[in-house]
Design brief:
With about 120 residues, the chain is an alpha/beta fold. The protein has 4 helices and 7 strands, in the order E-H-E-E-E-E-H-E-H-E-H. Pfam families: CoA_binding_2.
Length: about 120
Amino acid sequence: MKTLIVGASTHPGRYAYLAANRLLSYGHEIVLLGKENGEVAGYPILHGKPELEGIDTITLYINPTRQPELYEYMLSLKPKRIIFNPGTENPEFEAMAEERGVQALEACTLVMLGTGQY
């Protein structure tokens, strides 16, 4: 299962950084998207709107005010679900996703992994 982490960070204290490493430790494939330059666990942080295929899950770590510019891009990836981690909840985008058959979850990726719900 391939997960796109939106809001990827090279800072070890950030939840996006923790999620990237935890997803890898659980055997999930990751793709990182963010504004920072660098890499996490050997994976480069991509910028802009790269062409991607096979994205099963998008997990968000960006503020709702930064999400609108990525709405159509993220939906064009045709994920099965989008996880709105704490602080990223966005009723407008959640409704758009659901209308297109994408499951919108207000949840925590780290908790989901830890409890076997991922």
